[in-house]
Amino acid sequence: MSHPAPPVYKTLEDAIGHTPLVRLQRLLGAAGAARGNVILGKLEGNNPAGSVKDRPAISMIKRAEERGDIRPGDTLIEATSGNTGIALAMAAAIRGYKMVLIMPEDLSIERAQTMKAFGAELILTPRSGGMEYARDLAEQMQKDGKGRVLDQFANADNPRVHFETTGPEIWADTAGRVTHFVSAMGTTGTITGVSRFLKQQNPAVRIVGAQPSEGSRIPGIRKWPEAYLPKIYDPANVDELVYVSQADAEEMARRMAREEGLFAGISAAGACWAALQLAQRLENATIVFIVCDRGDRYLSTGVFPA
Length: 306
Prior knowledge:
Layout: E1 21-23, H1 29-34, E2 38-43, H2 54-67, E3 75-79, H3 83-95, E4 98-104, H4 109-117, E5 121-125, H5 130-143, E6 148-149, H6 157-173, E7 180-184, H7 189-201, E8 206-212, E9 240-244, H8 246-260, H9 266-279, E10 286-291
Parallel strand pairs: 2-10, 3-4, 3-6, 4-5, 7-8, 7-10, 8-9
Antiparallel strand pairs: 1-2
């Protein structure tokens, strides 16, 4: 008697991506809706480790394995502002690596605790040094033979995974109707990869990057000094920059939760704010923005009411 083949069970890696695209119902307002505009948020907080960074984390490790650059049991090192570190800690746990994460000390306690929960070692650097100091320390540790830096800022496997997955998902879920894509800019991997794909499908799609205004500190969004500009970034992939203040991003995070039931992080709120600014001057636009993580990662910051 023959038996049917056993089912092929999915792993946690298989749950990365294919995130929902949802329409904002109230924030756009009557005026924006009357002009025929639609704003859609891509819920990257639905990934297993809770952010858009799950995609490049697993991509960078798997591609490095395929090239023979690393093998299970090795120590990986990365400077991170939080989400990439959490995603890499998860990916390292899945695939059997030791993970050392270097993070400025002023970032939220939830992020640090989550990284440790996945088994990562955490090194905190002075707030005054910012991410630049953390990146320099990671490179020095690699030179000292303490592990391998994946380097999300220069690693082509970061934007590559967004070209292969995030961009195609947006194109398919909007049936090719997307006219504008908005993303917060940190490592620039998301905006670079998605831009390449969408413009390949339709060169008329406008790519808009959200950056912090002068003096604003928004987790996950950076305006890098020239010497630290991510090597994966190509200005040709971004058509327009919108500058978001810390106050506007934080207020938008609260409004997203109260008015849309969308509990998201501050960088996601910055992208939402930028999308709403676009909608004020456009007609018949389909605007997609990245909801890069969830709001529960920011409860200790005081942004949300206690």
